[in-house]
Amino acid sequence: MATAEITVKHPSEVATYTCVFAEMAQIAVYGKDARQLITEAINALDRPPAASSPHTSR
Hints:
By secondary structure, the protein is mainly α. Helices cover about 55% and strands about 0% of the residues.
């Protein structure tokens, strides 16, 4: 869940958010790596979806 603000008080909730934050921090990218990832995402928007993509069949 992504939200602007959340209040957690129960220890198990705090533990859950602590774990999630730690996992996200491990996969985060910064600097040149972040710029490359963003550029790849933007470039992917300019390409038509592949024929075998699950998003093309509706």
